[in-house]
Amino acid sequence: MLHCDFHLELYFFLQLAQQVFSVLSHPRIKLKILMVIASQLQLLQSRVTALIFSIPTSVNVKLDELNYLNWNFQMQLLLESNGIMGYIDGLLPCTPQHCSISAESGITSFSPQSDEYIVWKMHDRAIMQLITATLSPIAMSCAIGSTSSKDLWIRLKEQFSIVSRTSIFQMKSNLQTNKKDLDSVSQYLHRIKEARDYLSAAGVYFADEDIVILALNGLPAEYNTFRCVIRGRESVISLKDFCSQLLAEEVIIDTSVNSPFLSAMVASTGDTYTQGSFYPHHG
Question: What does pTM read for this prediction?
Fold first, then answer.
């Protein structure tokens, strides 16, 4: 009896296996399976997946109220260089979620979600994950509720680019009114460089000559001789030479303060000093 039951179960199993094999052998079914496999491979091989793990070395800032321009510049370079900016700027739009099917009776129905839509959606979600990995807590609060990477990008731009425009105005003002005060020359020049770099990233540029003028204007009275020498040159000094000579001038002034005899000597030979033994004119 048990032997008979075993053969009966085996018979039904073979019948079921034959039916499944016949279904899988159908051209449309085989095509569907191949499409799903190809879609999965496409996602696994996607650059987006690999980029998520490289974010710490590709974007070195977390977006907040003060660094939108820096963050935006780095993110655009990352997205464009990997060919996925189209998801954000709309050049790679979302494919239709369903395909309409018209029957002979004239009734139109819709198919389940297409493979192309599923893959596009998974890629877009991966890009959203990529972007959110570069956000500070305050920026993350603006990201919540975004429906796509494009929507997320627009939200962040609307929220933080306004703050950046205010920062640009403030940075320009700071650069034009910058004073050395009690800082060292290195610290003073570093502040100027930071402001200039920030403004350059925002598309606001200052020529080297303008930076030299701004730096001269912020020097205290003990640098008056140096200021006159630079302004009296027949040719424009390069920013590199200006920085080097300003650093050297700081050493001379500090030495003069600590040595009254040297200070008196420098004062008595001011004309010779001014004529350029240290700052020669370049015709």
Answer: 0.51
